[in-house]
Amino acid sequence: SILSHLGAWAPKAEQVATARYLERKNDVDNYLTRFKDEIHSRLDGFYKGFMELKSEGFKVDAIAPQAAIYLTVQFDLHGKKTENGTVLENTKAITKYLLDEARVAIVPFSAFGDSENSTWYRLSVGTCRIDEVEKVIENLRRTLAKLS
User: Fold this and answer.
1) Are 76 and 119 in contact (CB under 8 A)?
2) Contact 47, 65 (CB under 8 A)
3) 139 alpha-carbon distance from chain centroid
4) Handedness of CA 138, 100, 69, 4 (dihedral sign)
């Protein structure tokens, strides 16, 4: 019974500490400004990276960031072949390929009610650091270049 409620609310000590922190208006404002700036930097970095990949001829696209921690990206890779000859026949195979090869975890739009073979995905920038964005784009570039 205790375990079923552990995630339901924060412990009292944490609630009290948070309430005290929230009274420090300048600190909260500074934190939120920094946090939002960091999110926007990562979103912009990924968006620019996807536009570079697209301009290089890779079958990707992205929608300009619109005030969230997610970027809407497209991988139009159905029918592409991997180095070992495996055909990426569906969105599930593409998602797995990008995770295994590029180490990029994305959520297909089918998880949100779109068709099972939608080419659109959600990429979260909430857990990465700005210095990782360029590395992720380079991993994608190498991974996409392996496809024929």
Assistant:
1) yes
2) yes
3) 14
4) negative
Map tokens 């960091």 to a residue: 38
Write down the pTM of the prediction: 0.85
Q: How far apart are CA 14 and CA 6, in angstroms?
A: 13
Task: Write out pLDDT tens, residues 79-138.
Answer: 999 999 999 999 999 999 999 999 999 999 999 999 999 999 999 998 899 999 999 999
Q: Which two tokens stand for residue 112?
A: 């949100």
Which tokens in the block code for residue 79? 């029918």
CA–CA separation, 97 and 60 (whole Å): 15
The token duo for 130 is 């700005």
The residue to which tokens 């590395």 are assigned: 135
